[in-house]
Design a protein that fits this description.
This protein is 40% helix and 23% strand. By secondary structure, the chain is α/β, with parallel strands linked by helices. Bound molecules: S-adenosylmethionine.
């Protein structure tokens, strides 16, 4: 992520929608909570407000700097899943808002999460459904409409994202009381502000847009404006899954 401040202004408004159901899925208020792939800290902020002792981890030092500045009450650690630098049974709960879809080895990640949770500890994870994510697919559609060659980065998670498949992996990793729910909502945002937020943040999926020469960029932007316009009033449809289980 090139610009955490842009991520915070743009994408974090989209990810915030699932923070409440994610924390609710953990059950009664956990004391020691691990925020996985904390980004700019939407889960950390909500968990601190609930009185949890929060440890926030991310693979991006820039994201961690934001969380450390913004939430001095949280413990902030660099970590790249599937490896976590914590002892067995260190946490009562672990929550990952839109990070599991970034990891390349889902079974190894779930095994590591099982290890760092105490017996009875709760896990909750969200991810986007790749085919129903209009709020980001509109950028890929704009690139195609502007005839800009675009190969989305490999997303190994797609192979395991179906609810029954993911639930099976949770069970195989040793989790019980496993469930996967679908969350749908509309991301109500000014399409021009959404363009700025996503393009300036330059995350791995759409940094290709920032690399274009000015005239190509203008063409992509014109296509985006046309494709995004129908969603200006009611918002972009969004679909995510929420998985939970107990160690
Ligand atoms: C879409 S953002 C979500 C951030 C935050 N949880 C939120 O809801 O806004 C994904 C985050 O996961 C981090 N990330 C990506 N791959 C990771 C990995 N393998 N281990 C740890 N963090 C990772 C990224 O740096 C980014 O901050």
């Amino acid at each position: 992520m090139r610009d955490p401040a842009a991520y915070d202004r743009g994408f974090a408004r989209l990810t915030s929608y699932t923070v409440e159901p994610l924390l609710d899925a953990l059950g009664p208020r956990p004391r020691r909570l691990l925020d996985l792939g904390c980004g700019t800290g939407v889960v950390t902020a909500a968990a601190l407000a609930l009185g949890a002792e929060v440890t926030a981890v991310d693979s991006s030092p820039a994201m961690l700097d934001v969380v450390a500045r913004r939430h001095p009450g949280a413990t902030v650690r660099g970590a790249t899943l599937p490896v976590l630098p914590f002892d067995d049974g260190s946490f009562d709960a672990a929550a990952g808002n839109f990070v599991i879809n970034h990891v390349t080895d889902t079974p190894a990640t779930l095994a590591e999460l099982h290890r760092v949770l105490r017996p009875g500890g709760a896990l909750a994870l969200t991810w986007w459904t790749s085919e129903e994510m209009t709020a980001t697919n509109v950028f890929a559609e704009a690139l195609a409409a502007a005839r800009v060659p675009y190969e989305p980065p490999a997303r190994p998670f797609t192979a395991v994202e179906r609810p029954e498949r993911f639930a099976g992996l949770l069970t195989a990793a040793g989790f019980g009381e496993v469930g996967v729910r679908t969350l749908r909502w509309r991301h109500r945002v000014d399409p021009a502000a959404w363009w700025t937020g996503v393009v300036e943040a330059a995350g791995p999926r759409f940094e290709v847009i920032t690399r274009q020469p000015p005239e190509t960029l203008a063409r992509v932007r014109a296509c985006y404006d046309r494709l995004a316009a129908p969603y200006a009033a009611a918002g972009f449809p969004v679909c995510a899954r929420l998985a939970h289980g107990l160690r």
